[in-house]
Amino acid sequence: MKFRLQKIFRKHDPHRLERVYIKIRDGQFKIVGLGAWYSYWRDPYHLLLTIPWTGFLLLIAVAYLVINAIFALAYLAGGDCVENARPGNFLDVFFFSVQTLASIGYGAMYPKTTYANTIVTIEAIAGLMGIALMTGLAFARFSRPTARVVFSRVAVITAHDGEPTLMFRTANQRRNQILEAQMRVYLMRDEVTAEGHKMRRIYDLTLRRNLSPSFTLSWSAMHIIDEFSPLYGMTQELLVKMHTSIVVSLSGIDETVAQVVHARHTYGSTDILWNYEFVNIIHETDDGHRYIDYQAFHDVLPLDEGS
Predict the structure, then answer these.
(1) How far is CA 72 from CA 81, 290, 295, in A?
(2) Angle at CA 218, nearest 5°, toward 216 and 221?
(3) What angle do CA 173, 254, 207 make, to 5 degrees?
(4) Taking the C-alpha atoms of 295, 251, 34 and 237 in order, what is their torsion angle to the nearest 10 degrees?
(5) CATH number for the domain running over 149-302
């Protein structure tokens, strides 16, 4: 395992540099802390969308209590301004604030001075804005489209129709249809230019079929390793030495929600097995019907040395 250090410019402050740690393992590059919800504290909206649901609900509860406490202090500052509230009693004006913020209005307590009515007006506006914001955030969290797509744990390089072929499998766990599914595969590896500069290069891997009108059950992706392939002439040792990784990106329209969904997977150099083949998962019954056995979805078998 190796670590690299890179400096980048922040968009909001082009003169300030930040250290970003990149972890390299089996050819897979991972930015330390990337995707962690707490790394978005400078972007409140993104933070509220990425924070776990328990944290989201806890944050709403804390904000609700703090806002009511602030307005309760404002009522206390006005003296005896709330009818039927004990003068100087924090709990009475706090619960009056709760009733006002939520537009409950039991009628037992009500403002009796101009000062109290002014605070009530401000709190009513704050309550409307707060409900609108929380409703919008909750809807945005619920409505985010997600894809439940599983990829085989490994990819294999095997013979297919007499040609060396890179293969991996993917399946739709929801059993619904992903319409106009599109798969793109990229190969990433370290290379040294003629000037001696080390850089990370990206190559497109052409698939036999990268489009599917309806992705429902499973999909076996195949890339022919010919003289035009970036994998041509490569060995397992070279894959590891060049920190090679294969990135798969799948997108399509979920027929249930009619929105675009995405799925992504990365195969490191040690996830690519040579001279292996996937166990067949398509079987036939005695009466001629076909079925898929997903229990062997990730299973592979070694090929004979002579094959």
Answers:
(1) 11, 69, 60
(2) 125
(3) 75
(4) 60
(5) 2.60.40.1400
Angle between helices 53-77 and 90-101 (to 10 degrees): 120
Residue-wise pLDDT tens digits, 120-155: 999 999 999 999 999 999 888 888 888 889 999 999
The answer to whether 273 and 306 have CB atoms below 8 angstroms apart is: no
Which part of the chain is CATH 2.60.40.1400? 149-302
Q: Which two tokens stand for residue 62?
A: 């804390």
Hunting for tokens 């397992």 — which residue is that?
A: 236
pLDDT in tens, 28-74: 555 555 555 455 667 788 888 888 889 889 989 999 999 999 999 99
Residue 304 is predicted with a pLDDT of: 73
Q: Residue 188 phi/psi, 5° resolution?
A: -120, 135
DSSP strand pairing (218-224 vs 245-254): unpaired
pLDDT for 306: 45
Where does CATH 1.10.287.70 sit in the chain?
53-142
CA distance 169 to 219: 6
157-161, 219-223, 262-266, 281-285: segment of lowest average pLDDT = 281-285
Enumerate the β-bridge partners of residue 8: 18
Evaluate whether 41 touches 50 at the Cβ level (below 8 Å): no
Instruction: Please give the Cα distance from 298 to 171 (Å, whole number).
Output: 11
CA dist., res. 198 & res. 201, Å (int): 9
The CATH class of the 53-142 domain is mainly alpha
